[in-house]
Each structure stands twice: as structure tokens, then as C-alpha cells.
Design goal:
Number of strands of chain B: 29
Number of helices of chain B: 20
Largest interface: A-B, 60 and 64 residues
Order of helices and strands of chain A: EEHEEEHHHH
Helix content of chain B: 25-40%
Oligomer: heterodimer
Distance between the termini of chain B: 48 Å
Shape of chain B: globular
Distance between the termini of chain A: 44 Å
Structural class of chain B: alpha+beta
């Protein structure tokens, strides 16, 4: 067991767990923030996507020992009042169906808009292709990202 | 419906819905329990008291409407409240939706659809059609109670009052009482007013139904607040996962948990009939423990089973005229039609096993009481009543000792009908004397996949010398889906497996039709999978229609329009989709279009796929998919459109990519690495038109899916002259067909 201090959604926390514990379970079960989802455990579906120092990472592939002193942002911390342009666009385009993958989709998309204010459709698809949506909301995700880029 | 599970528990539905004949419409106002049944009241804890029956109206005007059907993405948590709110004449902006309270499925929430039989079970695109009249009547009765209360208050005849959005009006005296004001003084009569269909609104009077209203669950699904089964937290709980026998029916022989127990956080292992549960203080511990656990297995009914070899045997059977199947008796005399045929054409089609691959791996949380005769269960399930029934069987207790707390479902697609986790979780909780949250890793979810059956089809058409299709024969070889989980159901239906056989029936006007099913029994774990048998049956039928069109040198849309004479709704969706896609005008260079039609569960739909093929890699690219659907009265066109899109993507995924194989009885695939599903870069542009008519609403959640594979196969035929006969249409198979 090891104790690791890091920042999550602007709040300093310390978590005691095995060093190789995936950040996914640290967030979901140790810190009881369940917006970040478990889908495959091997980095192939993107449901567990969070930001580490502003970069989108698969939390199932990120060990607790790798985040010491770093800043983690989850869907709960993306915006103060669920008012990130992507969250507003997600509602306007009525993206979610079952909704399970959508936290990961939004966190993945947020990284794109942070570094590219006006992504082309090809850039959107290339950036989002690692995130699976089994309900098939892909066309709406694309439209929502385009809307967020447009409306800011 | 009869449930069977591998922990030797068999429970008949009769045992837990006995005496539920008739529907007790409940309606409560805060402070009054109203007509809520005693058992429901007793089972509802303090925080949920206000939910009570279907409708709760607060003195602040807030209206909560229970949506008893499972929300798995299809939008029913919005759709059902819209129907109730319409007849209640509610102000929609004041409406929120709630899951049913964790009671033992009082009949008040059960789906009266004959397919469902009055229980809590969301399957077969039956929620809107099943609840349609009931939901309207409950809304209308509640409205009548509010009108009566206002009329009594004003001392005017009921006939003189009317309603507007959340307000009762007495036009003569211009007096108004809002529903919020009425909730402060009204009481709910012991018996709800008796209304008839004539008391309901006419479709022309609808002001909520038919509107593209935003879903009520969207806000919580963009900020991480929506709670799924995976997200449940119960005080004092421990974590568990499962290592299940790789072969159906095998049992643990030697269990070596010495390495697993050395992992920090592992508490112990719990041996079960066909699995071993690993229990610990964290998910990471039990997942690591599962990997370290060494188990040898004995027995297993399907130990030597290889699916690829089995499919070859299906085809041999298909081609052996001595092999007779169950006749499915479509109309007409097929043999007479074939006897006078000028020409007979034949085709064969095959499909592989597929798995649901719902995004949320299977999980369940349960707390068995000290005495071991009662339990609370937290789960996102399509079948709360079935969970209660199976759980009461596992604990050998009464049905009403089980409380099921419904959650959002991270995808259902049929997988979450099944109750395979119930015994594992309850027995582990009983053993541990603590609440247990069991999560399956994706690898276990794939290993314990419940599959859509494989299928092999032989299609024959008899053509007259005038070029009319006069005869039709469809021979199907496939396993009985019901044979795995609900064998008693098959006895009741005299062997007719309505899951495997869905979609064999078609509306094409052909003089003599015959269809037969050659049943296979391989012991495979099978399940309802989105659109059930029509996923493979329509692939064969709709591909074959294009084979016939090619033989007749007829346009495939024109042939279908001709064969759909007498079905104007079917002709309308076909003609509309052809117009949308510019059918008849040439596709751009290197592309071609293919069409398909289906009408499972009475919802006519048609689709056109536009494809290109990379001959070097064998990859099919679907550029556009046009779809038209007509589910009668459309409750929410935006949700119908979303469901059509979902069906196109899910349908294209099974058409091009998804395939489970079994070797020596075990599933070969393990995760999204070798069970690939469609990704964004492979998704087509989807163009949907939703046609609303005054017909009774029919289902939408899985209607469009069966179109996709045949439309793509037909487009590839149009492009290359080669027919793809085997799902999924993988690059290898495409290259082989084009070689």
C-alpha cells in the first residue's frame, strides 16, 4: 500500500491503495465519483477517459503511482454548473441514449477543443475514434462538437 | 415466461403474479397514500413515499410520473411520461420522471401487453404499445379526479369544467385552480373514476404527444450524475467478481486460490455451482485475484463444441431434402406454385453468433438479510420482476421479500433481460453476510456472452413465365433461443421459438409460400439480441428479394412495391426512402446503393445503403444510409429518429464486424480487441424520416436494425455483381467473394 497525494477537480486528496491501482478505480470506488465509467479495462473503449494535466487519458491504463502531485479532472469537474460548451451542445443535439459512454466522449472531445478551436470533421473523427458508443450516437457526437466549436 | 438458471432454481412467473388480474391504477398526492396498494406502501421507504403510484402532484405544481419500463437508451423514461402527461393535461415543463419504487412489482406497474403478461419486463419493443392505453387512462383518470375536486370546490357540475396545461378552468365564471392548488386540498377517491376510450383525447387534440421534446434524462447524462448499476454504493459492502466456467454447465474441480489470497485486499473465494466468486475490499483486488485464481473444471454439456464445424453441419442439413423441419404455415400452397413454375431460383445465406457488447459490463449489488430469507438488489435490469422471482427462488423465500432498486442501464439490447447474476450475487452475499457488489470484467462479460443463434437459410422462389413471383420457400436451420434460458416456454408454445423465428413471416403477396425451421440443439448459451431472429431472417429474405429482382431484371424497389400490394404503409416507407436517396439516379462513381424493407412488430420501415468497396483490403465503406420508419402515432419524433440512428449503427456493426466463435465449448473472443464493434470513422451519414399516422403506436427500439445487413449486401451486389452470403461481411469474406 502506498499513499498518493494529487489534485482532483481542483481539490487536494490523498488516496491509500496499491501503487498499481488503476486511476479508474481510485476515482470510482475510493473517491466515490462515479461519472467516469468502466467499459473494457484495457484502453480500447474510452468510457473511462479523464484529463491528467489537461491531457485526455484512459484512467483504466493510468496507475495511481503515476499521478502523484498531478492534476486530474473528471466529468464532475469539467465545468462548475454542467455548462461547458460541450455539455450544452450535448443537450442541444440530444446526444446520449443509454449515456454510459458519454462522460468519456465529452472528456475526449474537451481535449480536442482545448487545443483546436475549430476542428474539421476529419479531425473530430480522428480524435474521437478510440471512444466506442454502442448506442450509435456517433453522428450526434460529431454535430455536438461542431456546435460547441461554433457557439463556444 | 418461465425462468431457469444454472443454480438449479426454476421459478414460474405464475408464482409471483398470482392474483394480479385487473389493474389497480394508483394516484397519490403528497400526504395521501390514495389508492396505492398496501404492499406497495409497505415496501416503499420514507424517502420514496411521495412516488407511490404512477402520478404525484406536489403543492408546488411539480408532477412526477413513474416510467415503469427500463431506460436503456431508448428514451422510455421520457416517452411514457409524455403519454401520461398528455391525458393528464399537464404542463410538461413541470414534469419529471421516476423509476418504479423498489416494490415487488405490484400489478400497478406491470406491462399489460400480452407478450409481457403484466410484469415489469422491457423487451420486444413493447413498452409504448403495451403501456399505451394504460398510460393514457391513468393520466385521464387523474385529470378527472382533479376536475371533480375543483368542481366540488366551486359547487358547479363536472360537465362545466375543463382543463388547460396543469389548470382546471370553469369557463362560465372564469375561475381557475392550478393542479398545485388542487393538490393542497384534494383527496384521491378509493376507486378511480371509470372512464372509457371516448373520454380520451383524439390524436388531433394532442399537444405533448408528437412533439420533439428533449429527453428528461439528458442533463444527468452529460455531467456524470446518472446512476447505473455499476455506480451503486451500499454501506458496508464488499466487492466481488466471478470466474465462471468457460464451458456451459462445467463445475469447478480443483480450486487453487493460494496465489489469489496473497493479493492484498482479497478476503476469500466462494465456490458456486459453475463458477468461483472472488471477494475482497476493492475492485482492483478482486480483479487481480481473478487473474491469479487457478481452477480446473469438470463436465460441461458443450465441451466438444466447435461453432465453425457446427455451421458446416447446418448447411449439410439444409441441403438434405430428407431433413424436414417444423412447418411455419405461411399462406398458400407452395408446392402447387413450384409445380407450375417456369423457373425456380435458389440462394443460401448464413450468419455467425453475435454478442450484445453493451457498454456497461454486467454487474449487480445485493444485500441478503441475516436470516437469509430476504434481499435488496440494486441493478439496471430489463426485467425487475424476473429478478425478484429468481431471487425468491434462490433464497427459497416469498416473492415480496425481494426489493429490486432499478437503475439506469448502460445498454440492454436483450442482455439485461437475463438473470444469470442473481444467484451468484445473492449466494455470495448470503455467505459473506454482507452486501456484495459484483462486477464482471469485460473478459468475463464476453466469456459469458449470451448469443444470438447462428443461422443457415435456403431460399427458393418460383417464377411464372410472365415474370411473377408465384412461390416462396424458406428453410431455416438454427438453435432455439428459448431452449437455453426458457425451455418451459418452448413446451407452452409447442416448440415454436418466437425469438429465433421472428422475421420469417413477411408481407410479400406471393401465391404459395412455405417456411420451415430445422431446429438445432447444441446447448449453447443463447439470448434475445436486439431485433432477435429478424436480424438473420431478414438478411436472408431481403437479400433474396434482390436475387429475384436480378433474375427478373427488375428494379429492387419496384419489385418490392409490387409485392407489397395491399400494404400501403409499407409501400409508403419504401417510396419515401427511394425518393430521399435519389434511387434511380446513378450513384457517384465507385459507389452503389441497395435497399431493404421490414415490418417486424407491425412497424413498417425501409432503408437504402450506399457503399463502396476497397478491393485490395476487402473493406466495405457505407457512406450513406437513408431510413424511413412509420410507427403509427409517434410519441416523440426526436427519440424515434435517435433510435433509427442507433439501429443503423448497431445493425451495421453486426453486418460488417461482429462474430463470436466457440472452440471446445468456450468463447474464443475476450474483449474489444477481438470482438470489434463499429467506430465513429466507420459510421455512415444517416438520413431519417419519421412518418406519423393515426395508427396505434408500435415499437421503435429494434425495428430498423434488420434492414442494414441486407441493404449493404444488396448494394455490394449492385456494385460488384457478387453476392455476400455470410454475416458478418468481413474483409476476408469480401475478398473471397470478389476473387
Amino acid at each position: 500500500m502506498t499513499t498518493v497525494a494529487f489534485t482532483i477537480n481542483g481539490k487536494a486528496v490523498r488516496v491509500e491503495a496499491e501503487a498499481n491501482t488503476p486511476l479508474l478505480w481510485v476515482v470510482r470506488e475510493h473517491l466515490k465519483m462515479s461519472g467516469t465509467k468502466f467499459g473494457c479495462g484495457v484502453g480500447l473503449c474510452g468510457a473511462c477517459t479523464v484529463h491528467l494535466e489537461g491531457k485526455a487519458v484512459r484512467s483504466c491504463q493510468t496507475a495511481l503511482s503515476d499521478i502523484a502531485g498531478k492534476k486530474v479532472t473528471t466529468i464532475e469537474g469539467l465545468s462548475p454548473n454542467s455548462n461547458h460548451p460541450l455539455q450544452k451542445a450535448w443537450i442541444a443535439e440530444q446526444v446520449p441514449q443509454c449515456g454510459y459512454c458519454q462522460s468519456g466522449q465529452i472528456m475526449q472531445a474537451a481535449e480536442l477543443l482545448a487545443k483546436n478551436k475549430k476542428p474539421s470533421r476529419e479531425q473530430i473523427v480522428a480524435h474521437m475514434d478510440g471512444n466506442i458508443c454502442r448506442c450509435g450516437t456517433y453522428p450526434r457526437i460529431v454535430r455536438a462538437i461542431e456546435r460547441a466549436a461554433r457557439e463556444g | 415466461m418461465t425462468m431457469h438458471n444454472k443454480q438449479d432454481v426454476s421459478v414460474s412467473r405464475r408464482s409471483f403474479v398470482a392474483g394480479s388480474a385487473g389493474l389497480a391504477f394508483s394516484f397519490t398526492i403528497p400526504g395521501f397514500l390514495g389508492a396505492m396498494s398496501e404492499s406497495a406502501a409497505a415496501a416503499t421507504n420514507a424517502a420514496q413515499k411521495t412516488i407511490g403510484g404512477w402520478i404525484t402532484i406536489g403543492t408546488d405544481g411539480a408532477i412526477t410520473i413513474v416510467a415503469p419500463a427500463a431506460e436503456m437508451g431508448q428514451g422510455i423514461l421520457t416517452g411514457l411520461p409524455m403519454i401520461v402527461a398528455e391525458e393528464l393535461d399537464a404542463d410538461w415543463s413541470k414534469v419529471s420522471a421516476a423509476f418504479p419504487p423498489p416494490v415487488a412489482a405490484p400489478p400497478v406497474y406491470g406491462n399489460p401487453d400480452p407478450l409481457i403478461g403484466g410484469i415489469l419486463l422491457t423487451v420486444g419493443s413493447s413498452a409504448v404499445p403495451g403501456y399505451w392505453m394504460m398510460a393514457r387512462m391513468i393520466g385521464a383518470q387523474a385529470r378527472r379526479v382533479l376536475m371533480q375536486a375543483a368542481a366540488d370546490q366551486w359547487k358547479v357540475p363536472l360537465a362545466e369544467v375543463s382543463t388547460g396545461p396543469s389548470v382546471v378552468i370553469h369557463q362560465k365564471t372564469k375561475r381557475r385552480l392550478t393542479y398545485a392548488q388542487i393538490a393542497a386540498f384534494a383527496t384521491v377517491p378509493a376507486e378511480m373514476p371509470k372512464l372509457t376510450d371516448a373520454d380520451l383525447k383524439k390524436p388531433s387534440e394532442f399537444r405533448i404527444i408528437g412533439k420533439p421534446l428533449p429527453r428528461l434524462d439528458t442533463p444527468d447524462k452529460v455531467n456524470g450524475k446518472a446512476k447505473y448499476g455499476m455506480d451503486v454504493q451500499v454501506p458496508n459492502m464488499v466487492y466481488a467478481t466471478l470466474l465462471r466456467a468457460p464451458v456451459e454447465g462445467a463445475a469447478p474441480d480443483q480450486i487453487d486460490d493460494s496465489a489469489a489470497k496473497k493479493i492484498p485486499g482479497i478476503i476469500r473465494t466462494v465456490p458456486l455451482n459453475d463458477a468461483v466468486a472472488i471477494v475482497g475490499n476493492s475492485v482492483e483486488a478482486v480483479f487481480a485475484g481473478r487473474n491469479a485464481l487457478k481452477v480446473t473444471w469438470k463436465g460441461g454439456a458443450t465441451a466438444g463444441y466447435n461453432s465453425e464445424a457446427a455451421l458446416e453441419e447446418y448447411v449439410k442439413r439444409l441441403r438434405d431434402p430428407g431433413q424436414k423441419g417444423m412447418p411455419l404455415n405461411p399462406p398458400g400452397d407452395a408446392d402447387a406454385a413450384f409445380a407450375k413454375a417456369a423457373k425456380v431460383i435458389t440462394s443460401e445465406y448464413q450468419t455467425d453468433y453475435v454478442y450484445h457488447a453493451q457498454m456497461e459490463p454486467m454487474n449487480m449489488t445485493a444485500s441478503v438479510n441475516e436470516a437469509g430469507d430476504a434481499a435488496e438488489i440494486w441493478v439496471g435490469t430489463q426485467a425487475p420482476t424476473v429478478v425478484s422471482g429468481v431471487a425468491s427462488g434462490v433464497l427459497k423465500t416469498q416473492f415480496d421479500k425481494i426489493k429490486v432498486h432499478q437503475q439506469f442501464l448502460g445498454g440492454g439490447f436483450g442482455r439485461r433481460i437475463y438473470w444469470d447474476l442473481v444467484a451468484y450475487v445473492l449466494l455470495t452475499s448470503k455467505e459473506m453476510k454482507r452486501p456484495v457488489k459484483m462486477i464482471w470484467p469485460r473478459e468475463q462479460d464476453v466469456q459469458s456472452a449470451l448469443l444470438r443463434p447462428m443461422s443457415a437459410h435456403s431460399m427458393q422462389a418460383a417464377l411464372s413465365d410472365k415474370g411473377d413471383v408465384i412461390g416462396w420457400k424458406h428453410r431455416l436451420v438454427a438453435e432455439a433461443t428459448l431452449g437455453y434460458a426458457q425451455p418451459d416456454e418452448l413446451v407452452k408454445t409447442k416448440g415454436f421459438d418466437y425469438l429465433t423465428l421472428e422475421g420469417v413471416e413477411n408481407k410479400y403477396a406471393i401465391e404459395g409460400k412455405a417456411a420451415e425451421w430445422l431446429r438445432e440443439d447444441r446447448g449453447t448459451a443463447l439470448a434475445a439480441w436486439r431485433a432477435i431472429g429478424s436480424g438473420f431472417n431478414k438478411f436472408a429474405i431481403e437479400s433474396f428479394i434482390d436475387d429475384i429482382a436480378a433474375e427478373l431484371k427488375m428494379d429492387p424497389v419496384a419489385l418490392r412495391l409490387k409485392l407489397l400490394q395491399g400494404h400501403p404503409r409499407g409501400q409508403k416507407v419504401l417510396q419515401t426512402v427511394a425518393d430521399m436517396a435519389g434511387w434511380g439516379k446513378p450513384a457517384q462513381s465507385g459507389r452503389a446503393r441497395g435497399v431493404a424493407y421490414a415490418d417486424i412488430w407491425s412497424t413498417p420501415t425501409a432503408g437504402i445503403a450506399e457503399v463502396s468497396v476497397d478491393r485490395a483490403t476487402g473493406k466495405i465503406r457505407v457512406h450513406n444510409f437513408w431510413n424511413v420508419v412509420n410507427p403509427g402515432i409517434v410519441v416523440n419524433p426526436k427519440i424515434v429518429e435517435s433510435q433509427s440512428e442507433s439501429n443503423v449503427i448497431y445493425g451495421l456493426s453486426q453486418a460488417l464486424k461482429e462474430r463470436i466463435t466457440l472452440v471446445n465449448g468456450a468463447v474464443v473472443q475476450s474483449n474489444f480487441s477481438d470482438y470489434e464493434v463499429l467506430r465513429m470513422s466507420e459510421a455512415p451519414e444517416i438520413h431519417t424520416t419519421v412518418i406519423s399516422t393515426d395508427d396505434k403506436p408500435t415499437g421503435i427500439g429494434e425495428i430498423v436494425l434488420p434492414l442494414v445487413a441486407p441493404a449493404v449486401s444488396n448494394a455490394v451486389l449492385a456494385l460488384t455483381g457478387k453476392r455476400l452470403r455470410h454475416l458478418p461481411m468481413t474483409p476476408d469474406r469480401v475478398k473471397a467473394a470478389l476473387a
